[in-house]
Amino acid sequence: QEFDLAIRGGTVVTAADTMRAEIGIRDGRIVSVAERVGPAARSIDAGGLLVLPGGIDSHVHIAQASGPDVVMADDFASATRAAAAGGNTCVMPFALQPRGRSLREAVTAYRALAEGQCHVDVAIHMIVSDPNPAVLGQELPALVAEGYTSFKVFMTYDDLVLNDRQILDVFDLARRLGARAMVHAEGYDAIRYMTERLERAGTKAPYGHALSRPEVVEREAAHRAIAHAELVDLPIVIVHVSGREAMEQVAWARARGLKIHAETCPQYLTLTAEDLKGLGDDGMEGARYVCSPPPRDAESQAAIWRGIETGVFEVVSSDHCPFRYADAKGKRNPRAKESFRWIPNGIPGIETRLPILFSEGVSTGRISLNRFVALTATNHARLYGLYPRKGSIGPGFDADLTLWDPNRRETIRQERLHHGADYTPWEGFTVTGWPVMTILRGRVIAEEGRITGEPDWGRVIDRAVPGAGT
Ligand code: URP
Ligand code: ZN
Ligand code: ZN
Ligand code: ZN
């Protein structure tokens, strides 16, 4: 047999082209894409389906230490099962350096958690919370050389926030190393000021979270990050841009010729701050929608769509950050009822990212199929040094594929999902377009919502630096 596997009868979609073609796969890689490919040990009939590059989700949180009372709801096994069922073949979670501790140790321990537990491939980013001389002088350069070529910095959160000088220092190092820096742009002092003001006025409920982080807080931090990036001459990624104001900063920077990349997420296209107002039985219903930055309003949703259509946004990630609603309601984290500030920030979305963006973007005619592929796979690979191994369909790429039914109507239900959270923010949300089969390096890892792969088929992979000046 010429091939181990052939995919026949489907419509192959890349960021550039849409074509009727067959795909020949050998040893886990794509060998041939042609009108007809030769005999194969196994053939899969993709008639009536789209054949897409497997989804790459370059912003997820898995088994990340989250504080004394709070446990993240996913380990690597559950998060990557959910990823596979949702049409993804690669996810990028974060190894977090606790302040005062070694970044190297954090990465080593985190990688050990992942090894042998992954249904999809995993590439690890870092979170730098303490850029001390050992981190800047030795650890970070060595880790980047070993293939951990990207890291995130935070402009808020007590345990993570960097001051402006620290941001400038890590940006400067990233430029010298060719590493990719991601920025969480929300202003620490402004959030603390707003939180204390709201608490003094008696605001406790989840909606206070949205009030404490208005768009101006994100806009100010985005502008500051962009200014620092300009000073240092470093292209950065502003992650989880939530609304019109921060997006305008990115567009302004681009117009000045700065290389600022931007990411947004399905929650900023489909949820609003109004969702945080839900009370339910015990006043905590809105905790299901608490993420940072918070969802905004209909006008911001429309602005984010324009940003997707016009290319301001290059990637749509889930920012999957799963907590259990039962914990938020007080079982494990009783302080959550005393103030919104103790509700863990983050919502689950690793399994629903692709259907929501496809349905709201492609099925409504807002974006093309090719743009969908760019936003969900190709640009993630390019931005983070996975290209040309992953992110497209062509000879030499890993055989990471998602067979997609563009016409399938489905309703998102918690009971069908594979993540470890006990709810989905999109309960009852209907979509048109659904992943039917996910293939990782030539093996079927999920089919019709069933997990068919083993947790040791996914690999922890190293990456190249993204390339100078990009
Ligand atoms: O609320 C969120 N997004 N939590 C996850 C951590 C982060 O800032 O991305
Ligand atoms: Zn963030
Ligand atoms: Zn870019
Ligand atoms: Zn995040």
UniProtKB/TrEMBL annotation:
NCBIfam families associated with the record: D-hydantoinase (TIGR02033), PRK13404.1 (NF009941)
Pfam families assigned to the protein according to its UniProt record, in alphabetical order: Amidohydro_1
Species this chain originates from: Methylobacterium iners
Name of this protein: D-hydantoinase
Classification lineage: Bacteria, Pseudomonadati, Pseudomonadota, Alphaproteobacteria, Hyphomicrobiales
Cofactor(s) the protein requires to work: Zn(2+)
SUPFAM superfamilies: Composite domain of metallo-dependent hydrolases, Metallo-dependent hydrolases
InterPro entries, per the entry: Amidohydro-rel (IPR006680), Hydantoinase/dihydroPyrase (IPR011778), Metal-dep_hydrolase_composite (IPR011059), Metal_Hydrolase (IPR032466), Metallo-dep_Hydrolases_sf (IPR050378)
Family membership: Belongs to the metallo-dependent hydrolases superfamily. Hydantoinase/dihydropyrimidinase family.
Keywords assigned by UniProt, alphabetized: Hydrolase, Metal-binding
Domain Amidohydrolase-related, first and last residues per copy: 50-444
